[in-house]
Amino acid sequence: MADLTNRKWYTGMLTQEDWWAVWLGVGFFFLGLLNLAGIDVVGFLTYPTKWVANVPEGGKGAIGHAFYAIGKKTSITAKGFYSGLGWWSIIWTYVAFTIATCIGAAFMRWNLKRFFIGWTIIYFMTIATWFIGHHGFIAANKINMHKYGLNFALSLGGGGSFILALIVGLIIGNFFKPFAIYLSEAAKPEWYIKTAVVTLGVKLGYLPIKLAGFSHKLGKQATSLTFELFVAGAAATIVAYMIFWPIVYLISRRLFKLPRKTAAVLGSGISICGVSAAVATGGAVRAKPVVSIMVSALVVVWAVIELMILPGFFTHVWPKTADPIVAGAAMGMSVKTDGADAAAGELLDEFMRNKVAVESNGTVQWPEGIITASAVMTKVWIDMFIGIWTFVLAMVWVYRIDRRPGETVLVSEVWHRFPKFVLGYFFCWFFLLAIYFGPGQGGAPEAMPYLKTVKAGAVPVEGPMRKLFFMLTFMSLGIITDFKKLREAQFGKMVWVYFVALFVFIIPIAMIIAYLFHHGMQLPNIAEFVK
Amino acid sequence: MIDMVIRHDGRNWVVEKGDLRLASPTLDGIDAEVREFVKRECLVKNGQKTEVRMLFDNSTIPQWIRQYAQHYFNRVLVVEG
Questions:
Q1: What is the pLDDT of residue A501?
Q2: A332 within domain boundaries
Q3: For A404, which of B5, B28, B69 is closest by C-beta distance?
Q4: Nearest Cβ partner of A283 from B59, B71, B76?
């Protein structure tokens, strides 16, 4: 049966992944807001803490508390109940998200039975790696390791869990291929990361509320920082498009002698946003779908390679903790799929925060998620511009290059290519900002009780739900990534075009552009407010 | 406006509408076949124009890619009588 989900502007709303990222993210966001009516239905969401097998006297890290329901800390109306859930919060979370994701899978006409089984396997593997990754030896750092009775720790923070999930996924994807193929119905890194990005919008909207809880001044600082990210991300993206695309197109045509349409698709795939740009450009220039499919296969593999290299490079080589937002923005312009970029941003966030806390002996601590947001913000702008850029390309190709008589370019193509999950991201962000400036009175002391109820609903979504979906993304990315693809003969020169363009031009230029537009952006220091 | 479905089968562009199936290795070829069909079926009067909207069948794109991008192209061909 033909899949004509783009017949009208609304026809994909129940059948496309982008929209289901919106429904999942915004759905749970609204469930959280029921706290304003005194009903807490999100406090069960599970969250790990650092643990060790043998807790020292007076120390922390008992394995019995390794997982807890977030409502134990945030709930106003049901704290007692959620405090008692402990490890059972894993099952509650599984049930809730299984129902939600299976509904989405059914509407998207996936194989529901295979999705359910695959989802269950992936979920519990994710929880297991989340647990192992939070062992004190992996997650603790120089400042807090003594509380767990340790003399040394890897200081990876939450990043250890992400790396572990990726490694487990890659092992499955590269050495247990039949198992990976079976899981592929549920290994959907783009769906999971887009849902996580919608909850990142909750994070950004909640940030002023959270910091206002520490001090009014910090709340204002957080608000202006998020606006700066918004504007700087847009400016950096426009510059990136103008520079990246022509360079890659020229490399493909002049150096590697590829045909025009292939060069255009590669140009977009390498320089803009990976698979979505490659497919959009393929459609815009009316290339045979096989061109976009081949470029997409390359993009997915290279994006995971970037994910493995760049967070560590930006943290320990350049710009290190002197310019964390520059690193995040450079990441957003360099890593070519939403999943890998957001995942890399999250890793960078963990690494950078851990590093600065250790370097400063705990006197500097940054709020979690802002560096991730800087990586995601540039990517969001890039995603939004794909539709416009490929519309321009379509106009050039249809009216100047191919010039088929009678063919016209539809403006509706811009909407069909627009990344719908971005709507959820901005909706949640601006909704919470409206609460903060409206009934929240800009964080004034008299509005604090009201903002506390907002916190009870926002934190489970922007914390545990977001982290879980990031973990699912890392695991799924690994499962679907097959490094052997790079050796397939059909790719030929394209592999080298990708390598040269990315590592010799795109990443260095991304670093320069990120520096020009984001240098000097300061992260708030919350050390004095955090235990 | 006349709606048709367009896809690529790995070798040819294929346009379908009900029982109708047109195929050509190039879009120019498909456009020529569509024009011929519209005129033959008298779907456009002499001296007038009609639009043929070709909606891309997204099942052409492999499932694993559709999570990244859910639209290839829709195109409109103006046919003159």
A1: 86
A2: yes
A3: B28
A4: B71
